[in-house]
Amino acid sequence: MKALNKQSSKVFLQLIEGLREPSNGKKVNNAEDIFMPVHIDYFWQNEHGRHYSLAHYYTQNGDMMSDPEMTFLVTGEAILPMSFRQDGLGIHQIALIAESGEAMRVNIRLQGDLARFANGWMKNIKEQQGL
Description:
Blueprint: H1 6-16, E1 24-28, E2 38-46, E3 49-60, E4 63-74, E5 79-86, E6 91-94, E7 96-97, E8 105-106, H2 108-129
């Protein structure tokens, strides 16, 4: 499986700093609304690791739309992109499933694509949010 690179991992760890329990979340908006804030949620933990969601959101017809949202699995060794969702384009891709009591299932090619995208996205977040 493809993990975030070293620089992206550093940005990701800054984003999740302080989220200690599942159901903890926060918003990073250091760009004073010039760029979309980053929403971070720690939503689940199991034997595979800690599960997080990172997203930009906008409102369309009163609905919150992801632009994009990605989920990540943080293990003892790596940060692994799991899924990608972009509501405005109707895209929802799941590359890694890490359910409780089951072996992880992965689409290696898609998971690698998500890791490449996430590395670029973390670079953009770092620049846009001044991390």
